[in-house]
Amino acid sequence: MIELEWLRLYRVQLALRTPFRSAESVQRKKDTYLIQLEASDGATGWSEISAQTDPSYWPETVATCLEIIEHHLVAQLRRGFASAYEIHDALVAVKGNQMARASIEMAFFDLAARTTGVGLWYLLGAAPERTHVPAGVSLSLNENVADLIADLTASRAAGYRHVKIKIAPHHDTILAALTDYQDPSGHRIMDTLVLDANASYASTNRGDLASVDNLGVALLEQPLGEHDFVGHAELARHLRTPIGLDESIAGVDDVMTALQLGMRPTINLKPSRVGGYVESLRIIERCQREGLHLRIGGMLETGIGRAHNLALASHAAFDRVGDLAASDHYFAKDITPAFALEPDGTIARPDGTGLGVVPDSAWLAEVPCREIRIRY
Q1: Which of 23, 51, 212, 371 could serve as 99's disulfide partner, Cβ 3.0–4.6 Å?
Q2: Where is each Mandelate racemase/muconate lactonizing enzyme C-terminal domain found (predicted)?
């Protein structure tokens, strides 16, 4: 039985090496909070709030997550939990607010794994032999075609297994540049490219996506709005390019909706976006049963969030390269030991119990911390 004593919030402000732009926003730094749960025996678990500071990608923000955690979720923690899975049932009493719930649930999973002396990946049913996860990198939306091509070439040279490129309506020069792109190695690369529209197109823009279909890329991710399942299903019937869903997937029910409409989408699974690991495992089970492709997503996480994603992405169900880049691609200095890109285009899953990493102690001593007593 695990009884929680404290929840601590550590402020994180990490400047990005370069601004990261998508169809809906520009991020210049990672501004969030780490979550530390401490049990009555002193054991701890870590996670982070993955939300952005604005609601352009997802309805939740860092500020709303803090409000929900302090005023609603902490009250659900004032009892003992026999397993990591039990905490999910307590937290779903708070409707919606998946990223706020995930920040606590995922920290509890880390705590439970450390308490039982196993790696988090083991608790998630991941593959013991999958010690290294194929790495992919996401490139910012860039109107400067020369810079975009330079970034693409550098990513290929670094060894990334795939590259995701952000696109948006009225940026036809990006698609034109990709049509003419010649990889210096002479290898075909279109089947290693993912184009991510971040829900920026409308169903009436179907003609604008015809040029995407001619490229032969591996995946077109979330072209339409997050609630437009019918539009995505219709689009999938007209395009040869496989369609992926990201923002549309808030839980396993959304996967079922897509299936019932005749889609066979590749699912971009971000555990924080679906409320944590329990719902993530339900989505994994459904994807395996239906034969759907699965890839891990990213939210420009710190080393703590990256370690969580690596643990989940080492599950055998993830058969497509996800958005897992090396730490130094985004940050000059992270708050954990850096995750490096291996020569074979993979990133090592952390060893040890739980996440296998903790925040740097010197960094923790310097940043603001807010403590919330759970047990009274």
Answers
A1: 51
A2: 146-242
